[in-house]
Amino acid sequence: MSYHSRIWLLIGLDSIIVLSTIYFSQALINPNMQTLTLPVFISSIALLLSHHLFSFLYKLYKKAWEYASVGELISIFKVITFTIIVTAIVQQVVQRQIDFRILAITWMIHLLFIGGSRFVWRVYRDTYLRNTINQKRTLIVGAGSAGTMVARQLLQNHDAELQPVAFIDDNTKKQKLDILGIPVAGGVDQIEKITKEFNIANIVIAIPSLNKKQLNHIFKECAKTNAKTQMIPMLEDLMTGKVSVNQFRDVQVEDLLGRETIELDITSISEYVTNKVVLVTGAGGSIGSEICRQISSFKPKALILLGHGENSIYTIEMELNDLFKNAGIDFITEIADLQDYDKLSSVMKEYQPHVVYHAAAHKHVPLMERSPEEAVKNNMIGTRNIAQASSIHGVETFVMISTDKAVNPTSVMGSTKRLAEMIIQHFDQISSTRFVAVRFGNVLGSRGSVIPLFKKQIQSGGPVTVTHPDMVRYFMTIPEASRLVIQAGALAKGGEIFVLDMGEPVKIVELAINLIKLSGNNLDEIGIEYTGMRPGEKLFEELLSSEEVHEEQIYPKIYIGKTSELYIEEIDYIIKNFKSLDREHLRKSLLDLANARVVYNKKLVSV
């Protein structure tokens, strides 16, 4: 129906209702009295004209009545009440008296029929137009304002795939009540029972302010069912209008393993980044690129994107130019090999960076076991080259990204990163540049992370391969890791190894189980296969060795490790002679030195 046809239909319908109500009221009060009298006719005309006047004033003819709610009912109440008041005034002027009883009954019948004629559209739509045959019966976790909005939008959208049939809420005052005709069936601990009772196929977590611990608890209860679990967007995204409340997303493993966001000290970061020249090595990698994104929000004067892979550097350059095109930041790309000191020195000389974030490194444990010489080249020689160039060319702050595998290392990768830490701590002692390292655990979603591998295995139908049932790791998200690196630069005094309080370590097998269930698959169908530990791997990781432990936090969730003994002469010996050593000898030398099991007397000798 067109807009004008719809208005004329409503005007005609209202005219019939208005005219019939006053005559019906007259007949109801005085059945034997003649109804077609002049006073009644005048009252009916006044009633009709004033009704249409107020209807246009309150836009009753423009409302979409299939979505009518309390607001529309209030508008109807106002229109009818003002209409009766105007009619009473007309009666007083013309007849010198007001028929209060007739007008009261007219008001009630008027309200009943006008309201009923409108809301019947809503009832018809919700009852007959809603296709519930192919809809998934849905349980909404959270009967607060967000959960109610979710339910209302799903009920109003007759094309929605989800049909809300029950709420879950731990507020006992809401339990056993109905909200929008939907029962609040119980608390979070009853999710498994209620899912079976209501034959639930889909669960929507509708509490945008949930912290990670609460979300983890809810998901564990949801994981006991076979229902697919989704959640509404985060509170900040809803408030900024990026997404609407009914744009559900799947629960990600990052939601379950990440911790509460670390609040940055914006002032201190701005002081050493804003309007400064910043250089990031490994800028095309997962950590390096995220550092570039977050640093750009602080509006540096220039950001130098240095990396070895041209494709990844090109990709992050295009992204940053698009995201920050009006920020006035000069994004500069440099393709360089960390082993080429002359190239690094020329870059430093040309751009004179104030801050360097050293994210470039070889990080894959099994691959570095097979190629220890490459780990020495990239992680040790590369770190020494960029640190030396930074020192000579007056960089103010140098932040190196390290790993928890550098603590009591059992792998070549961990050993070379531990020795790289010693290199930058040594430079801090001999240079005016502040050199620091930032140590954290596994990063979710980074290249080489176990998460992409598990997802690929699940998509292929399984099984998911886990090295050992007891293997545990610390996990953090890429944005969280990047925030720590940036904050460390602001806290740097020189020589520190910063460590994040990473909470409790997570069992890899539990991570695999969660991913299988989050993907909507059955654990029995996908399966888990144990393959045995790979060379260089440990069952658990540490963030600080016993000699480094310093219990005081220098910033919320950030600790600082004590400086341990540096073996610079031994490191120099390995760098000078690693090409002459066979792989096994080189591997043993790196492990021994990183674990302080050697002394120096013109050659490496085990203690």
UniProtKB/TrEMBL annotation:
Keywords, ordered alphabetically: Membrane, Transmembrane, Transmembrane helix
Transmembrane intervals: 7-29, 41-61, 73-94, 100-121
Gene3D superfamilies in UniProt: NAD(P)-binding Rossmann-like Domain (3.40.50.720)
Pfam families: CoA_binding_3, Polysacc_synt_2
SUPFAM superfamilies: NAD(P)-binding Rossmann-fold domains (SSF51735), S-adenosyl-L-methionine-dependent methyltransferases (SSF53335)
Domain (Polysaccharide biosynthesis protein CapD-like): residue spans on this chain: 278-561
Similarity section: Belongs to the polysaccharide synthase family.
Protein name: Polysaccharide biosynthesis protein
